[in-house]
Amino acid sequence: MSADSQIFIPPSFIALYTDARGRLRGTPAELAARYELCEDLANHLVEQAQLLYHGAGAPSEGDILLGIHAGLAAPEAGFPDGQADWVVLRLAELLAWRAPALPGPAE
């Protein structure tokens, strides 16, 4: 990522890539690429979540978000270190839905 990059990475995402001393784990380019992937995915999931919500026998907003989280949190999905949580919380924000309590790593 160049110094003149205009991508704003929110502190909530940067926190996923910092250690206990506040140092960045990985390169700025890796952080920017992963952020863009997660932000794009959250935006892409907006329409899917709305379709599920307005479908026949529709689950609640929270159930939809928890279902999406379950899929993203699976090891084979490739969203480690709280990224699945971040995507779902960002999705809730984009939809103006109340964010559910997300399960912890052991659940």
Description:
The protein is 53% helix and 0% strand. It has 107 residues and is mainly alpha-helical. Helix 2 crosses helix 4 and helix 3 packs antiparallel against helix 4. The longest helix is centred in the middle third of the chain and has 27 residues. The chain is elongated. The model has no long low-confidence stretch (mean pLDDT 91).
Mean pLDDT, to the nearest integer, reads: 91
Give the DSSP E fraction (strand runs of 2 or more residues).
under 5%
What series of H and E elements makes up the topology?
Answer: HHHH
Tell me the radius of gyration. 15 Å
Helix content: 40-55%
Weakly predicted, low-confidence segments = none
Summarize this structure as a short list of keywords or feature phrases:
mainly alpha; single chain; 4 helices; 107 residues; elongated
List the helices and strands and how they pair.
Layout (H helix, E strand, L loop, with lengths): L10 H4 L13 H27 L6 H13 L9 H13 L12
Task: Produce a short descriptive summary.
This protein is mainly α and 107 residues long. It contains four helices and no strands. It has helices spanning 11-14, 28-54, 61-73, 83-95.
